[in-house]
## 1
Amino acid sequence: MKIYGVAVLSACFIAGQLIGEALGILFHFDGNIGGVGFGMLLLIVLGDWIKKKKWLDAEAETGIHFWSGMYIPVVIAMSATQNVKAALSGGWVALVVGVFATLLCFLLIPLLSKLQKKTEPSGSSL
Amino acid sequence: MDFIPKLFAKNELIVAFLVVGLIMFISVLVSKHLLRNRIPGAAVAITMGLILAYFGGKKGIADMPLFAGMAFLGGSMMRDFSIVSTAMGASLSEIKKTGWVGILSLFIGIAVAFFVGGSIGYFMGYKDIKSVATIGAGACTFIVGPVTGAALGASSDIIAISIAIGVIKTVVVTILTPLIAKCIGLDNPQTAMIYGGLIGTTSGVAAGLAATDPKLVPYGALTATFYTGLACMLCPSLCYFILSLFI
């Protein structure tokens, strides 16, 4: 049943949101702290566990996969409902931040790659 | 003839599905034929969404009654729900195989994007901490920006800027990856995982690796899958706290 997968996803989502809200109250912060991230971690752990126990069949999993396939469409709808007119007044910020911050991350790849090779135990390389 | 707009208004969410489907269809065609797959259809579609939003008002295209359902489909509930669902593709035991450098790359990638992005925003005139944090989060991915902005209560125009930053990042990553892959040694699974962790924007990473070497896609996408979730957790909390020590 597809709904079982959707229900598991919903449970993780709500539990994650609850953790996020609770952390918000704990840190006297007006909002949700990382509810989405906690929901994801819960789904990874719970999803793995449920798969091992074989409590969800492949069809139930398609209920979750449907929503992960809807991720890009939802983002498209989200971008179409933003206050773009107001954002364009700061258009250069978007371009400069987007390009410069990304280039810097690219430059770090060879550095971390060297670090990884140094720490890699011999014989375990792919 | 006024029954037609009434019908559309009554079924606003269904209309939104149709509209997004059409945007995606056109974007994939544009990506394939005009851009020779250099920019993925998803990135074109998101950009097209932002362009359409320009013709609307405060709530973008959703200010037009015909497209009111877009506000629900693109609202925070649907957005967060669909993001959480993408975690199903990742597994903890797989990430363990990457070694600690793979995990380190996630933290460094998020920190560099957040603080460098935020600093640039600060020096370009956005002095209040909520805006700086949202701009920095936007430099992570186009998801982290709005999630952080919503959590901190940033204004809609700042959130729109953060999405624009994330979209620009996706486009830059997609175009640049195959061009500089050799220079940065991106030709093995280990580097692909580090690349996914440092860059993070899943659609850009998947598209960039597909253009470089399709065999590397799952490795890069795996770490990148964790990036958005981790950044959604860190940006409005720990990163914001560190930022508050400086602003």
Note: Chain B touches chain A through 113 residues (CB under 8 Å).
## 2
Amino acid sequence: MQLDEFFVTGEPLIYIGMAAIVLVSGTILFVLTYFKKWKWLWAEWLTTVDHKKIGVMYILLSLAMMFRAGVDAMMMRLQLAFPDMNFLNSQHYSEVFTTHGTIMILFVAMPFLIGLMNYVVPLQIGARDFAFPFVNALSFWSTFFGAMLFNISFVIGGAPDAGWTNYAPLAGSELSPGPGINYYLLGLQLSGIGTLATGINLMVTILRMRAPGMSLFKMPIFTWSTLITSFIIIFAFPILTVALALMTIDRIFGSHIFTLTGEGLPMMWANLFWMWGHPEVYIVILPAFGIFSEIISAFAQKQLFGYKTMVWAIILIAGLSFVVWVHHFFTMGAGAFVNSIFSITTMAIAIPTGVKIFNWLATIYKSKIIFGTPMMWSLAFIPSFTIGGVTGVMLGMAAADYQFHNSYFLVSHFHYVLIPGTIFACFAGLIYWFPKMFGFQLNRKLNIWAFWLFLIGFHVTFFPQYFLGLDGMARRLFTIGPEWFTLNFISTAGAFVMGAGFAVFVYCIVYSYFKSTRDLPGDVWGVGRTLEWATPTPVPKYNFATLPDVKSHDALIDMKEDGETTFDEDKLESIHMPNYTGQPFIMTAIMFFASFFLVFEWITLASIGLIGIIVMMYVRSFDYDGGYHIGVDEISKIENSLRGHDNE
Amino acid sequence: MSEKKHKYPWNHIIGFVLSIALTFLAAWTALSSDLPVMWIIISIMVLAVIQALIQLFMFMHIVEKGAGDAPWNMMFHAAVVAAIVVSGSLFTMSFGFTHDHGGGEHETEQHEEQGAHEGH
């Protein structure tokens, strides 16, 4: 293979991308070397099995990916700003919308939420760590390397260009030869291993490691939503794994599962994809509902209204999420009977979702709202998300869907549910738990700027797109005609306001790092209701010195009434902790290279990689590292120094 | 942690080898056994059931006591989801290839028809 076939050539924008990659990686290498941080990086982060550090790394990965996919989005909006723009050509535009969608769903929304779950769930249930800390580290690194594999595609070999849904037969080897689609298949496969393992890990953690007295119906609502989400992950992700594997076999080894020739069944890809894909959208929305529920009840200073109905609504949504997938391809021609059934199941989802909306409203009804910044995101979520939900019901009507299908109406709908739902929740959750994670508050003023810019930018971007859709503009068009100019231009302006909002948010983190005060109390916001706020800030590496008996789902409120803390000197015992290990990082790095070789269909090199993975699994199988213990004296010392501030 | 005896995991090794062997057997049956199609399908199904049992008994702790009823709960849900995947796919995909739904012929459908014919 020639070098100019290996690297993507001839696109000025991609040369800029290459230069940026070289500059950023060069700077990182220089800073690490100059400040002699290599050892710190390896010992503190790359080998860690601590759920708190892994959670932070997930969130950093997600923010970086949000930047990348956000740049994709702004490039698309620029191309669509004026009729017949010549900024991106059709091939490049296809690559950009494909990577935008795939990255936003799989490498922004999922890692962000899983990062928050990683950090918060063990603290909410009074656990020391995940049930399987080693597997947790492995999950993160496979997500990380999956994301990296997907991201290098645009400079090495060419990016995938068949949309984030990657429909066959377009994505098959006849119509899309070359490494592009292979990147999609293997990048998602690699990160999918991590997601599935995290689902199992979280479920075991929540079912087996709760504090004494915490029955399932005394769990905080975010933990509940995480439990249900991990349930969906466990049952939905294997479908994606199988579908990806089948298409990989099709493309690399020439089978005929989704091909047009040889009795292949291309529509089966759409079917399998959405059997995973629909539960997937609930995987990214249910934890968001959990985060909003926590924040709304905390800042409304009231018990969550209808806790039990909230839980049952989540369970019902999770159940229904497995029986609605056909609504993503009503126009495939499955017939009126099939479409009617899936139309009804789809509309049924609006019922439990509506229950949740009314429960949030009832929670803030007649309450004394404290307008903390997380609460502002949460309050903005309710009306914005409802617009997305209502248009969702419109799309769910099979007959009407023949009009809306594949138009900007649909594009606007899913951005209206995913951004106010998932992305607002990510911002709200990050701001809410940020002081717990890092020991300092984010600057309120800058945060409010970021919030208003992002919120206004969001509505200006996507509200006009509903009308563009009704005016007949199809999705994935790479140029527009003059009749769609005005609304598209407004939409593009909004996208840049959103971008500015994100930039202010990132600046806010940097600013606060230098300017904010440290020495925060355990219950940083003063409104915490759940166990994570009972720990001192910053959280000691073993989380809880001692655990209280949990009596309700507002554990901290009860503890405050009884004057309890998580440091009861009489109950202290030595704590068993897992050792850090470099194995997960090394194993997934080998997987990364094996997958990379498979992308280029270099079978020999890929097989060598496979042997490397098996060797690492062998090493792990006979690794009897039992961890270490933290003695009572040391716990006392740590807790006293952390709580010195509290006791004044 | 107290020192535990580390028994060699024979159970897992045997299970692993067996499941790999069964996979190869299934691949061989499909690719080069020259059995009639119906018998290929039947034998692959039988192999799949044996495979599932190996997983359940040698890896999934189904014979262990004391962990509560969680495995049964999950197995029930897994069976439900598997049933949805199989019957749902059949339900959805079979209607796309017939003409007896109100005479509405759509473009996608015609493509499908052509695709299927070319294959023969």
Note: Chain A touches chain B through 35 residues (CB under 8 Å).
## 3
Amino acid sequence: MHRFALHRVWDTRGEAEKMTALLTPRNVLLAVLLAFLALLPVYSTLTGNYFLMSLFTRILILAMAAVSLNLIMGFGGMVSFGHAAYLGIGGYAVGILAKEGINSAFVQWPVALLASGLFALGVGALCLRTRGVYFIMITLAFAQMVYYVAIGLDRYGGDDGLTIHKRSQFFDSVNLSNRAFFYYLCFALLLLAVYVVWRLVNSRFGMVIQGARSNERRMRAIGFPVFRYKLVCFVISGVMCGLAGILLANHTDFISPALMFWTRSGDLMVMAVLGGMGTVFGPVIGSIAFLLLEEGLSQFTEFQGIILGPMLLAVALYARGGIDGILMGLRRG
Amino acid sequence: MADALLTIEGLIKRFGGVVASDNVLLDVARGELHAIIGPNGAGKTTLIGQLAGEIVPDAGRIHFGGRDITALPVHDRSLLGLGRTFQITSLFANFTALENVALAVQAHAGHSFRFWQDARKEAELREPARAALDRAGLSHRADTSVAGMSHGEHRQLELAMALATRPQMLLLDEPMAGLGPDESSRMVKTLRGLKRDLTILLIEHDMGAVFALADRITVLVYGRIIASGDPASIRANAEVRQAYLGEQEAVAHV
Amino acid sequence: MLYLIEQCLNGIQLGMLLFLLAAGLTLIFGIMDLVNLAHGSLYMIGAYFAATFAAVTGSFVLGAILALVATLVVGMALEVIAIRRLYGRDHLDHVLGTFGLLLFFNELVRLIWGPAGMTLPLPSEMLTAVQVLPGVYYPAYRLVIIVATLVVALLLYVLVMRTRVGMLIRAGASNREMVGALGVNVKLLYTLVFGLGAALAGFAGLMQAPILTVQIGMGENILILAFVVIIIGGIGSIRGAFVAAIIVGLIDTMGRAFLPDLVRQFVSYSAGSSLGPSLSSMIIYMLMAAVLVFRPEGLFPASSK
């Protein structure tokens, strides 16, 4: 029952009871994690260890993508295997506009979000007519289409990708090239994304989405036109992932088709599942764990996949609750 | 019939070579409890499926409240006031009883493109949900999760959800399925209480319940209606006795 | 005109390759209800085996046969060790688990064969071009691929439709319990089917090895195309996979060959050059979208196979 535990924490109980209820291993871990993330730039600036800050900027951005995927996959039961496409669309919108000399974030960002949303609308309208394994394969195929389209864009680097010479411009006082500032921007937007997902899944809309995952047939029988709610949810998720794409392009100052190769979609899925699907913070924990593991393994061996691969299989077989499920298991004792 | 709420005209449905609905003609009057009985494989559940909109008939028309609903999708039929329950319990397994019913209330409380307020705290959803649980005799289990409930309670919850959609008419697909004698008699009592306000189409194998509740009974065999009338005339009908009741008695006597 | 015929043959050859992959995927999905992302890895392994065995034995044909057997064995071992545990679970588990296997195989291959790719030289008699029509020459080896795959397709058809094993396969697809009740060893049947799928993928890989560079990740792009094939053909249908594979092979090849020129007729040359490749790579996905709109279950839904 770990899936719904997070909002239960905020139920109406006595104050003292509330306090002990808050002291779950999960919440303690979360608090430590948030404190760590909040203080990391301070540490980096003091010690000059900018690699760590850059690594975590990337983690925060991909965590946002995983959070967006979790909205449809964990809560809505829509297993999208094409989420990297939205990273790419968001990123390419920024890159292409920058290449054409339009650097204003007030143009770049809305265009990028709109493009992500429209693509999600099209893909969603097609694949939500089907179920199960069709859904997985179709989202995968359309994401691969975007990948090939990007390869075909000779003007924008084709296969080799495109360097972005200037980051998105807001006002003069807002400078995305400042590493600490950019880190905090990503952190704030990630927290915002988590908060939005939390409000969404507990709202009437979220009840429909969760109900559809649980029992779509019954949803229709009690009078819900399920398709349009799922489609809207799919689009919201796509737009949110597009935002992550915008940030990623600004972070790396570079975009290339590799950004949305299908195995990247697989990575996002792993991040969402590893943390614990269907909990709002799970994907954040999963992203940190997965990317640190990847990074850490690459220090010891160049053959990370030898360890990572069987580990994924083990998670699929034995630990589908992810890290969150393990923490909840600790609580139960 | 002057005041028919549901009219079925010449409904035909074939699955391969099997005729599941063979020119079914039926009127259900407003306020009536109409039972459909028949041996296994008679096409009862197929009929409910077509009325609810999950199965598309090959031919024929369905009118509900004076409106042709033959081509309407499932959710629109529910919104018009045609509620249903499922033969095999069909609930939201990871929700509590109250959340299950509140979702049914929500389906009929305008659109659900409301993204921000916590739905679990909305009195507008919770109060009617509690009332529906109460009518189905489950109010004491409101905050229990579905996983923690007994089969009998699942059947009651199944009914409560259908009631929460405030239907004019209920399609009940074997509400007694799998219930013990005590639970069955409680369900009969519950249904008798509903009878006054609702039109009900009941599919049921429990003949005691059927004859205790029904105003009219229709007998379906191999997708065809072989008799329709009040309980006394069905009990007296020779063809029915042979085709159905007789078969059951024969089984009972073996 | 000559160019058109040549491109046609190229399209058919791509279609044949896609069929070999799609047939295994769709067979495994239809019978074990398993989504296998590691299918492309078996294709890659087949190619690596072929390159290695051909180098060791000094014979292309012998190398190919050994590679085929080796891929079959790897496939069956994989089924027994890992895949078997995924049956009956939901598709997300399949995706995660087999994605993990894909990462594993990529690294394993890198560990064994090193990061650089390999080449598999063709025997000299296959390097010639054959005159297929008056004035139309086509590489002999590519014709060999087409003919060999047609033979495999025919064998597959005979196996599934005419033999006892095939009957069990078809029965397994529609009714697991019944096959089990007949006293058939379902476990063994599943291992064999997975091995067959692996061998088909390996066959595709080894046939392709002389044309492409044998390298890590070579199965990943082609796998998605194979998915497109089975979506268009209808999941679980071998006949659908065959027809859809040829359609996709032809359209993709033709699109890449002719669409850029076509686009240039309507827009300026430079815009055409950059738009053309993008557009032509979209065609098959557009085809897939169209199929989904009009026939969501694919051209040959499995229920009617």
Note: Residues 250-254 of chain B have pLDDT under 50 and may be disordered.
